[in-house]
Amino acid sequence: MDAQATFSCSFTQSDLGPVVEVPSLPPWPAQRLLPPERQDLAIQVLAGAGTVSELAREHEVSRKFLYQQVHTAEQALSQAFAPPSNTFRHGPFLPAGYQGLAVATGPGLGVDLP
Predict the structure, then answer these.
(1) Residue 86 and which of 11, 65, 70, 98 are 20 to 30 A apart at CA?
(2) pLDDT digit string, tens, across residues 45-67
(3) Chain centroid to CA 103: how far?
(4) Nearest alpha carbon to residue 42 among 75, 70, 9, 5
(5) 43: enclosing H helix or E strand
(6) Do the Cβ atoms of 103 and 111 come closer than 8 Å?
(7) What is the pLDDT of residues 76-109, one digit of tens each?
(8) DSSP secondary-structure letter at 17?
(9) Is residue 96 within 8 Å of residue 111, measured between CB atoms?
(10) What is the dihedral of CA 47, 50, 55, 56, to 10 degrees?
């Protein structure tokens, strides 16, 4: 004679305690990269540490994504090393007659002429 045992257990939601939601990760690896990781990838491409294809495969991101990061890094570098846009305030040379000119930029401050 065959014997079959069954086990039955029922729980209510209150028996299980509070439900904690686990934050979901973004679906794509590129979306999971933090800004310093994106910066590091762009630096690796710019430094020639590997080809775009190799780095994309290694980090499971698209080549297009890497090229976008490189473009962003190049723009930041260009801006960081660009000459100052206001050469009058930052430049050492002033037109003749303006050597004694002092321009103050603060509340209630004006221009002192020689």
Answers:
(1) 70
(2) 999 999 999 999 999 999 999 99
(3) 37
(4) 70
(5) helix 35-47
(6) yes
(7) 999 999 988 765 555 556 555 555 555 554 455 5
(8) -
(9) no
(10) 90
CA–CA separation, 28 and 50 (whole Å): 22
Size of the chain, expressed as the number of residues it contains: 114
Cα 95 versus chain centre, distance:
42
Determine the 3-state secondary structure of 111 from DSSP.
strand
Our CA angle for 26, 13, 4, nearest 5°, is: 105
pTM score over 0.70: no
Return the SS3 of 4: coil
| Cα–Cα dist 100/104, whole Å | 13
